[in-house]
Amino acid sequence: MKPKILVVDDDASIREFLEIMLKRENFEVKTADNGQKAQKIMEKEQFDVVITDLQMPKMSGLELLKEIKTINPATTVLVITAFGSTESAVDAMKLGAFDYISKPFKIDEIKNRLKNALKNKNLSVENRIMRKELEKKYSFENIIGASEAMEKLFEMIERVSETKSNVLISGESGTGKELVAKAIHFNGPLKDKPFITVNCGAIPENLLESEMFGHKKGSFTGAIADKEGIFKVADGGTIFLDEIGELPLLLQVKLLRVIQEGTFRPVGSTDDVKVNVRLISATNKDLGKEVKEKRFREDLYYRMNVIHIYTPSLAERKSDIQILAEFFLDKYNKELNRQVQKISKEAMDILMKYSWPGNVRELENVIERAVALERGGAVLPESLPGGIRDGRERLSALINLEVTDRGVNMEDIVGRLEKDLLKQALTISNGIKKRAAKLLGISFRSMRYRLEKYGLEAA
Questions:
Q1: pLDDT at 355
Q2: Which of 47-51, 221-225, 243-247 is least confident?
Q3: CA of 115: how far to CAs of 22, 98, 110, 213, in Å?
């Protein structure tokens, strides 16, 4: 379709000149000789760009601009100004005009301004579509569950999303804490603002401060230019601090200052930067215990924990396993272009009995693997990982051991259990150690130590 342009000017010669020139450039053009007529036309039709003079009788260009932004905010507006009248053009741009064209006209200048205006229009449309997709993706519907525990979670998300208070989300790894954070953001008043995730356990400690607060050029080796930190980029929006329990004490002090005063200081700078961000934090640790053991600041804990949300483990909502498994079956049939129509009763029984230490994330990985490997129309037990098929019995045999008069080798039992869990996590994560560590609820450093301890470093 041809882009539609509305030209508004009380000077007939200018209207005719622009109409002829724009039609030659393959635009669909309509004209109006005053702002009131233009307003009536716009109430009936949509235009990509409006080109309007500022000085007109009955309704000025500035008044028309305000009406345009009310009728259709997506319309891009170019204003025409007399030579040397840049003040009026600046006023128009403050009210939402995209750019201005000065009299006398230069054809190349008009073409370039119009080209940029249309590019801006297309970008605005793409941004709106993307925003709608994000809102849909992170709406409550994408957090799946029908259990009582999930109904309580949905109700909490809905209530919390209406506020701008800091939120602490706790729960085991793989329970969807980041999905909850995104649902809160994209269903709340800040949904049009940035949402930025920081994994406090995945960034090396010596780089974390620079990532969060930015740095000045030359402040340390490798700082070859100024860099804006995540807090500056997210100004006005939400920062999701995942694995907040891994945040070093020094950075806890800096984070507390941001929360209390709304300011921070980039590395190597002497100037404070003011920001306004909402913090949503998540942890799989018992932060109350961390506070008692002096590994987490008590004042920061209470500042972050204004509203607390708990994400239930899959073991706490077993009735959701079938719903989730079928949801992931449908999802990966589409993504992998497969036609696995159902999960067999035998396979579903195994899924229902398994303990799911990796929670929803582990279940999703298992179903994705099954869909990818299955050659028939149903997921069979053979398509499930060996650890899922027999892991429950093997773990139960270790966990349910009793201490007898002869005693037990506790370190050996704990070691066998720990090694087994490490192997399972590595299998589910396809050997990706950081992902395996997250499944087990431990830091990457702790994961490496344990792999080395049990001779699994090569895994």
A1: 86
A2: 221-225
A3: 12, 12, 8, 38
User: What would the pLDDT profile of 410-426 be if each residue is shown by its tens digit?
Assistant: 776 787 788 878 888 88
Q: How far is the C-alpha of 66 from the C-alpha of 421, rounded, in Å?
A: 63
In this prediction the pTM is 0.59
**Do 215 and 176 belong to one domain?**
yes
Determine the Cα–Cα distance for residues 179 and 197; give it in Å rounded to an integer: 11
One domain, residues 229 and 129: no
- CATH code where residue 104 lies: 3.40.50.2300
**Chain mean position to CA 89:** 37
Q: CA 87, 92, 94, 98 torsion: positive or negative? A: negative
pLDDT tens string 39-94: 999 988 989 999 999 888 888 888 999 888 888 877 889 998 875 566 777 778 87
Residue 112, domain extent: 4-134
Please say whether the beta carbons of 79 and 97 come within 8 A: yes
Q: Are residues 11 and 36 in the same domain?
A: yes
Whether residue 198 is found in the same domain as residue 232: yes
Are 115 and 160 contained in the same domain?
no
257 Cβ neighbours under 8 A, 6+ residues apart: 263, 264
Of the three residues 76, 110, 134, the one that is the final residue of a domain is: 134
- Tokens at residue 141, please? 């519907």
Does the pLDDT value for residue 397 go beyond 50?
no
Q: What percent of the chain has pLDDT over 90?
A: 42
Cα gap 41→8, rounded to integer Å: 11
- Position 395 pLDDT exceeds 70: no
